[in-house]
Amino acid sequence: MTFKPILLGVVALALVACNGVDPNSPLGKRQALFKQMLKTSEDLGGMLRGRLGFDEQRFAAGAARLDELSRQPWQHFPQVREEDSSARDELWQRQERFRQLAGDLEQSTAALVAATAVRPLEPKALAPHVQRVEDACEACHREFRAY
């Protein structure tokens, strides 16, 4: 039967696609949260930049979701460096700075949520808040992510 070799190929591709990271490991949990944050942020930015249609309710819900997600990954960073982490060693050496940047992200997503309380939502008024969130992500990546 050819079913078995096909199944083995699919499993092998799935492992390669997932980089073999255990989804229940701290690294796997962080990666999943960061991917959700990226998708949510891209949708918000897409609505503001015209790639997606602007929908007030969807935007406000996305902002709230991003705020919720922004508070979760930090608990999944262990005190010592993991072998497969794409973070620089500095992350573990400069924990206080890392926590500060994480806090900056949390503050920027909270400010975005607060901005969605003023109705009707105006994309021009929301754009600086989304930019602040994007800048907070980028600041942490510049300092601590190994590309």
From TrEMBL:
Molecular function GO terms recorded: electron transfer activity; heme binding; iron ion binding
InterPro entries given in the database record: Cyt_c/b562, Cyt_c_II, Cyt_c_prime
Membrane-spanning residues: none
Keywords from the UniProt entry: Electron transport, Heme, Iron, Metal-binding, Transport
Name the record gives this protein: Cytochrome C
Alphabetized PROSITE patterns for the sequence: CYTCII, PROKAR_LIPOPROTEIN
GO biological process: electron transport chain
Pfam families: Cytochrom_C_2 (PF01322)
Post-translational modification: Binds 1 heme group per subunit.
Positions contributing to heme c binding: 137, 140-141
GO terms for cellular component: periplasmic space
